[in-house]
């Protein structure tokens, strides 16, 4: 029975992603974001449970990516699609042909996430670090945008998110980063010494301070900080096993 526990947690991620998809289509970005975050929490704990119970397997690996494809692939693509479309003063009642062609650029995030997850499943180099931006990080970046727009009073930030050139640039950069040959550190700890985990501890400390002080605006800044710190750390990319 214990071997099914991680898979049930993974299915919890998928359920949250499916609910978030429905909400994102309906334009309820706030509640969609809540379910994405819950799904990402499930995504973290399924791997933790598998290691704890020593029941890791190929089925769990494939199931994890399939669930992530919905929660951290389909949902952010739909949200970006709708953000771009709303900036064009469209409504959710339009038929498919009435949407701006520009809006479909947002779905590049979904395609990029799918490609990354497929590569991840056959890449033997990503056991201790990531190569390319993980899809949950991309998803958190995207779902934070409508929340910032809803709850932030900073006019400059509001204007940025209301600008489709900015949204398309974000889409292109995130799609590239997910599939770039760039090594990024993982937050998995083999041991907890300060010497060997200084960058991780620094990242977590700065992130906590920013979340407390900046609220939703902190999310994209934290993702950018994650990439920058990884580049500064200069993590070597392992060779692919043949």
Question: Care to give the gist of this entry?
Answer:
This protein has 242 residues and is mostly helical.
Mean pLDDT: 89
- How many beta strands in the DSSP annotation? 2
What assembly state would you assign to the polypeptide chains in this entry?
A: single chain
- Overall number of domains: 1
Helix and strand sequence = HHHHEHHHEHH
Helical content, roughly? 55-70%
CATH topology: Four Helix Bundle (Hemerythrin (Met), subunit A)
Strand order within the widest sheet? Answer: 1-2
Distance between the termini: 35 Å
Strand content: under 5%
Radius of gyration: 18 Å
Topology (SSEs and partners):
Layout (H helix, E strand, L loop, with lengths): L4 H22 L2 H25 L4 H30 L20 H15 L6 E3 L3 H17 L3 H7 L2 H16 L3 E3 L12 H17 L3 H16 L9
Antiparallel strand pairs: 1-2
3D architecture notes:
The chain has helices at residues 5-26, 29-53, 58-87, 108-122, 135-151, 155-161, 164-179, 198-214, 218-233, and strands at 129-131, 183-185. Helices cover 68% and strands 2% of the residues. It is mainly alpha-helical and 242 residues long. The chain has a single domain (2-233), classed as Four Helix Bundle (Hemerythrin (Met), subunit A). The protein contains 9 helices and 2 strands. The model has no long low-confidence stretch (mean pLDDT 89). Helix 2 packs antiparallel against helix 3. The chain has a two-stranded antiparallel ribbon.
């Amino acid at each position: 029975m214990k071997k099914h526990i991680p898979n049930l947690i993974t299915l919890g991620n998928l359920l949250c992603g499916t609910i978030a998809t429905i909400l994102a289509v309906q334009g309820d970005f706030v509640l969609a974001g809540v379910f994405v975050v819950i799904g990402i929490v499930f995504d973290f704990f399924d791997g933790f449970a598998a290691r704890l119970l020593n029941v890791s397997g190929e089925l769990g690996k494939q199931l994890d990516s399939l669930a992530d494809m919905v929660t951290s692939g389909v949902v952010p693509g739909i949200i970006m699609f709708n953000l771009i479309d709303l900036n064009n003063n469209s409504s959710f009642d339009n038929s498919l042909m009435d949407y701006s062609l520009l809006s479909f650029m947002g779905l590049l995030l979904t395609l990029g996430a799918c490609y990354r997850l497929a590569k991840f499943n056959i890449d033997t180099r990503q056991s201790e670090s990531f190569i390319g931006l993980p899809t949950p990080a991309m998803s958190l970046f995207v779902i934070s945008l409508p929340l910032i727009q809803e709850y932030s009073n900073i006019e400059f930030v509001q204007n940025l998110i209301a600008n489709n050139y900015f949204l398309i640039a974000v889409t292109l950069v995130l799609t590239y980063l997910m599939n770039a040959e760039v090594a990024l550190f993982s937050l998995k700890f083999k041991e907890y010494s300060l010497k060997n985990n200084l960058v991780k501890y620094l990242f977590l400390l700065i992130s906590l301070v920013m979340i407390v002080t900046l609220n939703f605006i902190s999310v994209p800044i934290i993702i950018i900080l994650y990439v920058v710190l990884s580049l500064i750390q200069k993590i070597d990319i392992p060779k692919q096993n043949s």
